[in-house]
Structure formats: C-alpha cells, structure tokens
Amino acid sequence: MLTTPSKKMSEKIILAIETSCDETAAAVYCGTNELSSIVNSQIEIHGQFGGVVPEIASRNHLMMLPHVVKQALLKANLVFQDLECIACTFGAGLQGALLTGLSYAKALAYSLNIPLIPINHIQAHIATNFLSVLPPFLCLVVSGGHTSIVEVLDFDKFSVLSSTADDAMGECFDKVARVLNLGYPGGPSIEKAGQGHKANINFFKNARTKNSVLSFSGLKTASVNYIRQRQSDGKLSEQQVGNICASFSKAAIEIVVSNTFKYAKQKSYKSIALAGGVAANKDLQASLIEQATQQGMIVHCPQLKYCTDNAAMVALCCHFQNAHNYMTVNNPSYLNLNVESNLSIETMYKHCKN
What we know:
Blueprint: E1 13-18, E2 23-30, E3 33-41, H1 43-47, H2 54-76, E4 85-91, H3 95-112, E5 116-120, H4 121-127, E6 137-142, E7 147-154, E8 157-163, H5 169-179, H6 186-194, H7 217-231, H8 238-267, E9 271-275, H9 282-294, E10 298-300, H10 304-307, H11 312-322
Parallel strand pairs: 1-4, 4-5, 6-9, 9-10
Antiparallel strand pairs: 1-2, 2-3, 6-7, 7-8
C-alpha cells in the first residue's frame, strides 16, 4: 500500500464516533482543539426499564447517528470533504450498539477515501487525562461496566494490575438504586440521596474480604438484603434511604480507594488519575484527593464532560496514540474489522497504522 508524507495527527481534522452503550456521540477535533462535541443521551428512554436495553439502544443509535454527525459538522463549520481521519470505538461495549457506529464509520471512511482508526473505549476514557498528566501514571477506571486499576505506561501501552472479578462499581450503584426506586443511572441518584446523611450502616459486618480485592457483588448483595429486610416492615423514610445511600457509597469508595493506593505504593507512582462515568462522583474524588495529599501524591480528575461516554475522548485518544505516525492514504484492512464487546483495556488495533 502506498503511503504519503501527509500531515501528522496533530494537524488532521478528525471526526470521532462513539456508540458503545446508550450515548450517540460525534466530535470534530484538530489535534487537541475541540471544534465540536455532540452527545445524544438515551437515559430517559432506558430509565423506565431501570437500565440499558441493548436492542433499544442499537435502534436509537441507528436513528440518531446521522443527525448527531451532521450537528457536529455544522457546529465545526465543516463538511464531510474537510475530514481527514475518522476515529471510532470498536470495543468494549454492547455488540449491537458498537456495530451501528463502526458500520457507519467504515462506510464514511471508505466513501471519503480517508483512514479509519479503531479506538478502545476504555483507553479513550483514560486518554482524557493526557490533557493534564503524561504517562507513566496509575489510573483508576470506574464505570458501569468496568472497574480496574491500570498502569498507563505510555499513550498506547496499558497494564491492568487489578480488575473486578464480578460486578463493576457503577453496575452496583445502578442495582442498589433500582431497589430503592431512585431511578437510572444509579450513581448520581445515590450520591444525591446520600448527601447530608450518615454513613452509619456496616454492610460488611461479617465479611472476610473487605477491601482485599476489587469485588462488589458482596457489597451489592449485603446492601440489597438490608434494604429488602427494612422494606418488609414498611416504606423507608427519607432519612433511612439517605443513610443507606451514604453508607453504600462510602463502602464502595473505600474498596477502590484502598486498592488504588496499595498499588500506587507498590509501583511507586506519585500521579493517580480517574476515568469513567463514576469518576464524576464527588465523594470518590474527595476521598482520593484527601489520601493523596496525606501521602504526597497528586490526583488528576477529568472534566465532567469527559466522564460519561462521549466522542471527544475518542478523538483525544486517536490524537495521542497516533500523533507521531503518518497515515496511509487509504487502508482497506479496516473493512474486515469487527467489534469486540469484551475488548481488554490492554488491547489496541494497529493495522491501520504504519
């Protein structure tokens, strides 16, 4: 395949697409300069079901993606022919949702004869931290589908030190919120309900694995059982709900914070970053910052707009991982690319790069 000394990624106009779950997102970037970022959320649609319904998510991506891309281009004052590269999430996430975005990106890249760069969704979350801290650093990834402690060795090199063997942190927030009838998503609902209340319930009174591993199923089960036992005696008061939320949130946060600093000490890291949807949790941020201050470390928290799924993070990931690489004029190998719903944090797709 012929190559050309084309502009580096720092100068290229990138259209980024993200459809891994229930947000349809598109962004236009030139290097780290945001020209536009559009996110269409399906929270209200899935809220009535207490969680994301994959088939409904895929159908809505199919309907909304062309409109979201059009809005992104209009806001950036560009047309399709101005694009020089397309970046698109190909994993991890819901298979049908990923397929919608990737299929659109393939067709568009092929029609415009420009490169397509497949992006790892979790690496994209981590990449938003590159705006404030450069590798190497330790990153706590917390979202509805992932909870991991990751060594970020370089812009395109990651090593997972610990990952939950069962439910992710955000997933447990959703399930506990559902039992309390607080709505979806559970993270913001529990955080709000717990404000000003006492974390005076010890769900792990008899647990043997408290804070020893990244595991949340025990906390989820203990919390749900506690709630249902109290609900059998009648409707819970606002104070009871608040105390439950504060106690659950504190316990969940202690699990990830204690493990994060354990690995930071073992690996001698002084910089810790947050990534993922739960990174928006103010109590989590405060707990990390408090302990980091005591131990002479620095915590980097992403801007709120980068926490939930968005295409800006996909564009930034594309930029940082490809900034010093020249791209091929057209590399049709991406036409054979398929989505990977269980894609590892450590995995990259490099076939579209020289």
